[in-house]
Structure prediction request, 1058 residues.
Amino acid sequence: MSPQPQAAVGAPLSRVDGRLKVTGQAKYAAEHDIKGAVHAVIVDASIGRGRITSIDAGDAEKHPGVLRVIHHRNAPKLPYRDNPGSNNPPGGRRLRVFQDDKVLFHGQPVAVVVATTLEAAQHGASLVQVEYDAEQSSTDLAEAEPGEPTNYARGDAQAGLRDAAVRLDLTYQLARNHHNPMEPHATLARWDGNKLTVWDKTQWVMGTHDELAAVFDLPADAVRVINPFVGGGFGSGLRCWPHTTVAALAARETKRPVKLVLSRRQMYFGTGFRPAYAYRLRLGSDRRGRLTAAIHGIDAETSSYETFTEAIMGAGQMTYSMPNVSQAYRQVPLDVNTPIWMRGPGFATASFAIESAMDELAHKLGIDPIELRRRNEPDEDESSNLPFSTRRLRECYTVGAREFGWHRRSSRPRSRREGDWLIGMGMAASVYDPGRFPAEARARLDADGTAVVETATSDMGPGTYTSQTQVAADALGLTMRTVTFRLGDSLYPQTGPHGGSATMASVGSAVVDACDKVRRQAVKLAVEDRDSPLYGVDAGDVVVRGGRLHVKGNPARGETYQRLLARNDRSHLEARGSYAGPPTPARRSYHAYGAAFAEVAVDATLGLVRVRRMLGVYDAGRIISPKLADSQAIGGIVGGIGGALLEHTVTDHRDGRIVNANLADYLVPVNADVPEVRAIYLDGEDNDGNELGVKGLGEVVQVGVAAALANAVFNATGRRVRELPITAEALL
Amino acid sequence: MYPFSYTKVSNTREAVNAGRNGGRYIAGGTTLVDLMRETVEHPETLVDISDLPLREVRVTERGGLRIGALVSMAETAVHSKVRTLFPVISQALELSASAQLRNMATIGGNIMQRTRCTYFRDVSAACNKREPGSGCAALQGVNRTHAILGTSDDCVATHPSDVAVAFAALEAQVHLLGPDGERHVPFADFLLRPGSTPQREQALRRGELITAVEIPALPRPLKSGYLKVRDRQSYEFALTSAAVALHVRGGVIRNAYVAAGGVGTVPWKLPAVEEALVGERPSDRLWAEAAGRAAGGARPLQHNRFKVELLQRTVERQLRTVGDSK
Prediction:
């Protein structure tokens, strides 16, 4: 922990970019005003699998304003250099736009129309006539052949299950979900000679940078990616999707800057999604509820051309103590585009199965669901045999039960009724394995006493601008107003993806390091400067507050950064900071935890589920920015409500068409669906591998919500629903 | 979007002339513009009728209620006469769409709105309504939200309006003005079942303009209300809905007006339910018995079988809600 006073960190501050956002001055990808930009609209495949036999672009090309129609018959061959980074799944072969006649999924880009106006490009796209030789597509997880499993085993799960006093064998189905950020994915691409600049909606500036360099075989310094603002992502911006390449290609072919915005419909096949799962869980325990064995059979969607994997296995290995575990995780290749991580990836999915099954077991044994979880709390991480850095799940249960009024829950389902409504409560444990990756930052203190901090991260909405400014301000000893934090430019020092709850720990640590270095430079300058009131003071005894250096405990003795730099004729002080990533090999098991509590009302005859209250209690380490944390928690819980009750990407398996590729038919929660939501954070910090003491909050808040709701539905109705989303027909 | 021309008319004569020449009327535009953007619709000429003097809600001489075609959904819902005489209309409107849409959309446009069938709205899918003869992708496709009543082998799409269900229940009349003058059509005859011509959705002649919807004078006191069942609590179309109005005198139901939404290719009047109610004394048993007749003739599809049961429960609930209210 820094010796600096913590004035900004921990304060419930409003967003530093709030004014820009609410006044419309924050520029999102499609909003940058690039001189001479023309518009591109993608033509999507209308078959689920097969070959393009002809493309007639004649009518489109004749339409006034249309400049070019590009497709596989006239597109240049693109290098598509290997790029195992940029979140391209290992193995497989990424989708190569307009490079051949193959159609791999419904909606695949088959052509792009470039025109001087958006309207002309849109109409031009509708005039392109594409003929296909269609094959039967395969998009049904239940019907297709899975690939080879990834396995995990400890102990002898088969024997453990066979010998268990109590056994459960349950299969859970989870629908495919789409991220549906408010801002559509968009790219503005401009070539200046052989240099490519893109303004792109991405959660990973450097990932998009590296991918474009690979696709077009450009040197690293010939590509620049800019994205100062991201209007929501939830994971959809963690890869460089085909449309970004299409925009860059169209710009090169037309020699004009090109703006390409995916339509809402195109967002359903132009970017990834949380894959559908079939999760079979067999669970064994003794009569007192001590788990003895678990066998997880996990099948998930992937595309035919890439094998997407996510951290679906972790929760089953370390949430509860048990000697015998076996897991088989199989990807099922389908004629769909490749999935991508979505909020709480893997853990949110697995927790629905595991936490629902725990509730079933508790009911079967007549043990309170919280007590059952307590009885299975491990002493160490049994998947790695490492001690936990911090794991305060028990406290989450205790605080949550008290604050939610858990004692008022009847263990007997269907025992509370208010008119037509049956009322029930449920809970679930939440676990997430936050990412940490190497990151760099640059800090510069100017002679006027203000500072600029730069790093190539993103802010998809959690408030990175604000929280990093807080961290930087305290490390520099400046006020929030005098620090400017910049992100979203590949020219800035590099960071990993803005996802996986990794940004605060990783980027934040690099920011602190850079700012600490600058502050120490200033302190050194002062204590060695005969004209400074701090001359001769031990550097370790100097702190900076409000831009003024002074002796710790003696604020009168000191001077401002401005005076110090002016007297020493220094225009600025500057330093680069870095974060090397977590210790390797790991010394501790580092996870974020929480407990989700839900109360629902279910209309006993109409089958409608209405959420009445939700509470999340989190062991997420230090909370840098409480107000932002609340936004994160509420957002994650709302996302969980969506996944539990509403969200379902529906595919017509006859031809692989997504039938609800719009926000009228793909249901996300609206205000009326979201009741009182409350979040509580356990005080404390976790210093395993990051000095800030944070564990990351953005993902864990969605984990467990669906199970808590499904368990509450059971408590209300006595009906166990093992398929998400829970719809009226399941409860009639 | 296909190129189109746009004209704004200032009186009904001009409107009807433009309509006779093939112009499409547009008022709030909340459905038509969407469909044009999706290229489901490509009218060559839009005739903007929003300046026409059709914005009045008034009680008729006979004691009914006449709602001008251009009165917005929002204005209709809050109108004091609508609220007091026919709360079922206000409720149906307020449970529709979003506040923004209700401010723009008009009553005439509401009953003209086209189906939410996703295959209709996806121009790359087969749809007899959009492209006669191309087939019906919904029949064997994803059809959870589709109709179970009034369907044909050519179309199973529901009519999406809520207020039209109330109008159907209350036996409204649609007032029309066309090249041949004025006429009015019973609501039951105005919206057409698909049969073998699902592209024909209304009993409108070329150039005809809706000028008003009139609710007839019904016996008073009339208790009424609307129930909408849907996955999401707001901003979604109905899985099932029920419009119920009852005239009870001396402890006996003298008149009953009942229709259902979300289940039919048109708003579905339920005469069998009405007959079961008339002459009876309100009771939970009566509600259940009458509602048991709501799904007569239903032809469920693969994904919407639950609607048969849900429809009966929806009607039963709303009969009880209205019947038990003061």
